[in-house]
Amino acid sequence: MGNSTLDYEGWSQEEIQAQRDLYHYEKLDAAIWADVKMYAAPLGLLMNGIFLFVAIRVKSMHTTVNIYLGNLAAADSLVLTLGLALLVREDLNLSVMKATNFICLIASYCFITALAFERYFAVCKPLYFRATSSKARTVKVSVALWMIAAAGGTAWYFSPKFANATQTSANVNNLLLVVLYLTLLSINATLYTSIIKKLRRQQRLISSTARQRAGRVALMLLFNTAVFFSFNATSIAEGIYIVVINFSNMPKMQIIKALESWTDVHLAASILQLINSSINPLVYSWTNKSYRAAFVKAFPCFNLLSKCYRGSRDATRGKIWQIELHALSQRGYRIGGSQGN
């Protein structure tokens, strides 16, 4: 809150100075956040855009897993776009922007959990999965998840308590997010634990190729889920911190000091959420070679460079092999490995 609108009646001089210091501290953190967002958000949009382009262009990427990942990338892209829009236009409706961001947050949680259920049924309930899984069904589930997220964001916007941003509504909002986070974290942890146990039991029952394929997909999604919940943990800690401050009966000076610490937590949470919305395509490429191959296939220039690299590498290996054979022949060795007389 700015100094010009704050009523200092009944405040001590020390408290007034501490509040002014807090105000300047918040402005400094806001400037740091704006600089980080200005450079990181476009990069995140580029990476998510590349992933969506590859997922649409390459036929091998048209899978149920990638439908969910594509929706997750769309939610991340919308969050990044909203952040950039607030930098460019300061006259935007802040309540609408926050509600839209809330929709994307709920959608991200939903699609991360949907991916865990998809892999659970594919690995642990294969007969049921084959009988019910289809791209059309996945699209319908995705639409339903967006509708759930939109309902949550709309309720946040139109509810008088949330719209007025009162202390009670802030507490309710933060507590709901904490409950949502912990519930879905527990569900994802349970599902991936079951998946890992099932894959270990199946090592001798299925072919190595099928096992490796299932393992790669499960590893990619597990790593992506771990990154998602780890990077959002700071935001949940921030919510708990605010609830504790609001319910506490601390003296005014201690509250100001607590809010000063909160600005650092808020900055860290915002940066981690920005990174989380940007790096998912890197996680896919790093953990699954099929995505790297699809990327090369989607962009002809990289495909050509890859072929040139492989051709150059094979030619170099051929020359090295010829040199080694020549050296062996000079020493009196035949290709069969026996020494000449």
Automatic annotation (TrEMBL):
<feature type="transmembrane region" description="Helical">
    <location>
        <begin position="99"/>
        <end position="117"/>
    </location>
</feature>
<feature type="transmembrane region" description="Helical">
    <location>
        <begin position="217"/>
        <end position="244"/>
    </location>
</feature>
<dbReference type="GO" id="GO:0005886">
    <property type="term" value="C:plasma membrane"/>
</dbReference>
<dbReference type="GO" id="GO:0004930">
    <property type="term" value="F:G protein-coupled receptor activity"/>
</dbReference>
<keyword id="KW-0675">Receptor</keyword>
<keyword id="KW-1133">Transmembrane helix</keyword>
<keyword id="KW-0297">G-protein coupled receptor</keyword>
<feature type="transmembrane region" description="Helical">
    <location>
        <begin position="138"/>
        <end position="158"/>
    </location>
</feature>
<dbReference type="InterPro" id="IPR017452">
    <property type="entry name" value="GPCR_Rhodpsn_7TM"/>
</dbReference>
<feature type="transmembrane region" description="Helical">
    <location>
        <begin position="178"/>
        <end position="196"/>
    </location>
</feature>
<dbReference type="Pfam" id="PF00001">
    <property type="entry name" value="7tm_1"/>
</dbReference>
<feature type="transmembrane region" description="Helical">
    <location>
        <begin position="68"/>
        <end position="87"/>
    </location>
</feature>
<feature type="transmembrane region" description="Helical">
    <location>
        <begin position="38"/>
        <end position="56"/>
    </location>
</feature>
<protein>
    <submittedName>
        <fullName>Melanocortin receptor 5-like</fullName>
    </submittedName>
</protein>
<keyword id="KW-0472">Membrane</keyword>
<keyword id="KW-0807">Transducer</keyword>
<comment type="similarity">
    <text>Belongs to the G-protein coupled receptor 1 family.</text>
</comment>
<feature type="domain" description="G-protein coupled receptors family 1 profile">
    <location>
        <begin position="47"/>
        <end position="284"/>
    </location>
</feature>
<keyword id="KW-0812">Transmembrane</keyword>
<dbReference type="InterPro" id="IPR000276">
    <property type="entry name" value="GPCR_Rhodpsn"/>
</dbReference>
